[in-house]
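task queued by scheduler; priority normal; single chain, no ligands, no partner chains; default sampling; output format set to structure tokens
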Amino acid sequence: MNKRCYIVGAGDFNDSELPAENDYIIAANGGYTALKLRGVSPDLVVGDFDSVKETPDHPNIIRSSTEKDDTDMMLAVRQGLKHGYNIFIINGGLGGRLDQTLANIQILTFIAERKARGILLGQNLCVTAIMNGELIFSRDIIKGNTISIFSAGGKAEGVTLRGLKYSLDKATLSSDFPLGVSNEFTDADAKVSVDNGTLIIMWDGKPGDL
């Protein structure tokens, strides 16, 4: 059974994808402010709060040291995994500082390696990672929207793309050559799959069925 954990960071917020009723909501550091502005109360707040003026007034807070290996977003993801969640919707994890954005994309691979699914939501942009698996896009994705596929590290073998403008059949993608950049959806259902390795997938538009 899929259990959704909805995490909010301090990056660009997508207001079209608010938490669902049964989501477990975690505010990562400055993400608490984004939720408060929208009248949403998180179940848990985590972070070192170095970028906010004061510690949030919340009954369930995990405060970390400013000197740590995990980012605040990683701390939030670890808490979600600890509580048994396997779907992670991360809003406010794109935009802002480039290093934090790249760190959040790496977190997607961390989630995928644990047989869970994570997706970063931005302004009309979604990013996810799959490991030794596949991702299906229904045809309600707007025709002509851009989708890009990258190897998350080393080589991704057996990459197949169907229903896109440019198809692949059991190809190999490597992290040193962006072969999968700037593909496009068509008016058909689309599938991205990889036999061995991890793919980062980013596309314009809605996240689809989560």
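post-processing summary
- The longest strand covers residues 155-162.
- Residues 30 and 52 are 6 Å apart (CA to CA).
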